[in-house]
Amino acid sequence: MDAALRDHLRKIETLVERMNGIADAKLRADATELVRAVMEFHGAGIDRMMEIASESGAQGWNLIDAFARDDLVAHMLMLHGLHPADLQTRVTEALNKVRPYLHSHGGNVELIDIADGVVRLRLIGSCHGCPSSTVTLKTAIETAIFEAAPDVTSVECEGSAELVNITKEQLWQESPNTLSARNT
After folding, report:
1. What is the enclosing helix (H) or strand (E) of 68?
2. Distance between CA 21 and CA 66 in Å, rounded?
3. Collapsing DSSP states into helix, strand and coil, what is residue 155?
4. Cα separation of 48 and 37, whole Å?
5. What structural domains does the chain harbor?
6. pTM above 0.70, yes or no
7. How far, CA to CA in Å, does 149 sit from each of 32, 96, 128?
8. What is the tens place of the pLDDT at every residue in 153-182?
9. How far apart, in whole angstroms, are the C-alpha atoms of residue 183 and residue 52?
């Protein structure tokens, strides 16, 4: 996920938190209803756009696939429950993207389960005996998953005593530069 998109998503989360903190209950309810109505309107429009694209045959489905690969559009589709790939597929694709990096450090990852927004993984192999390397690999995996599937709430890893489980919010609190450095 690029930094501009990450910043925009954080801004939205901050504004929603501020809106939920409005002391005046009527004003808070009106603001919440306004956001809900705008979201429903946008969701219906995006859903119709996806329908029109799918009705155009192979070209339309190619366009839908392109939507799913674009960070901004993919997040919009997920926000409205319209992403063409299900959660399992998005997590599997994220793991496949990070595997070459894991293999270069003597490791691998196995998907155990996805339930209630929690992804359970098993880390396999050694990371050349270095606990910090293991944590770096785990962070690379989590970053890939949260970017491909922001609807995941947390990632739990088995296979290394040094590892702690992390939520999306904890991961995103780190600077984008730190996350980028961990993925190289």
Report:
1. helix 58-69
2. 38
3. strand
4. 17
5. 3-79 (no CATH), 87-182 (3.30.300.130)
6. no
7. 25, 14, 29
8. 889 888 754 444 555 554 445 434 334 333
9. 38
